Model the fold of this input.
Amino acid sequence: MDEDIDRRLAAAAAAIREHDLAGQRLRELSVRIATARAAVAALRERLDAEQADVERLEGLTLSRVLAAVRGDRDDALACERAEADAARLRLAEAERLLAALRDESTRNPGPPAPARHGAR
Done:
């Protein structure tokens, strides 16, 4: 009888530990998702700014006219395009990370409830 109680107590303690660890992993995952969301938002803003720079140099604007007069329009446009491409790549990578974290979150929705045993 004592062995059965000891076995059940050990199993209950193990279940509680697993529940606590799963909860901790879920909290850490939530923080990582929030961080990834913030990174995606910041990188999206950066890409928008870089793309605006490219459009400003491509369009008929004062920036383009001044760059053309100085003779560095092509160089400036190439540089802005490269910066926009780099921002696009960083954003894509951040979006892939966020998607992976969300996928992990849906596969592991939360800690399992510890097993409850009725009194015997």
